[in-house]
Design a protein that fits this description.
With about 160 residues, the protein is an alpha+beta fold. It folds into two domains: about 70 residues, no CATH class; about 80 residues, no CATH class. It is about 35% helix and about 30% strand.
């Protein structure tokens, strides 16, 4: 078995492998596999099936690669949110959130503590997205989290 540090190292290797696959497939440039040298010669149902499945896999790998790349970005700011004069939630350094914005925020989750053999509340940084409904902002997947005074991290 490995520990978190070893897993992080393997994830870095995986990111590089995914970068290579996305590059050689032409997926990043075309959004599909039409950049392959033999794309126009692909004729059989089996080859077309492979193209379709590979395109679907590459879409998911591109998303995974983006997630892995995010964690390599340095944290530029840790702040609490407040509502600005435009009605948007903003950090102390002026980074603001609106519908569609990614957000990394600190939340509490009940977690089992193996050392103490009991459940406890633990803090966890969580990534999601800000959206708006009926003029009110919320975090996707966490509609009960109050944005005012919420602790956030900004990477870049």
């Amino acid at each position: 078995m490995a520990d978190l540090k070893a897993l992080c190292e393997e994830m870095k290797k995986l990111r590089k492998q995914i970068d290579t696959i996305l590059y050689i497939s032409g997926y990043r440039d075309y959004g599909d596999l039409s950049g392959l040298d033999d794309y126009k010669q692909i004729k059989t149902a089996g080859e077309r099936q492979k193209l379709e499945e590979y395109r679907n896999i590459l879409y998911k790998l591109d998303e995974v690669q983006g997630n892995l790349a995010y964690y390599d970005k340095p944290v530029k700011e840790v702040s609490t949110l407040h509502m600005n004069s435009d009605g948007r939630y903003e950090t102390a350094k002026g980074h603001y959130y609106t519908s569609g914005s990614g957000i990394e925020f600190l939340r509490t989750e009940e977690t089992y503590n193996y050392d103490m053999d009991k459940w406890e509340n633990a803090r966890i940084w969580t990534c999601s997205q800000v959206e708006s409904r009926n003029g009110e902002y919320y975090i996707v997947g966490y509609p009960d989290v109050e944005l005012s005074s919420l602790k956030v991290r900004v990477r870049g």
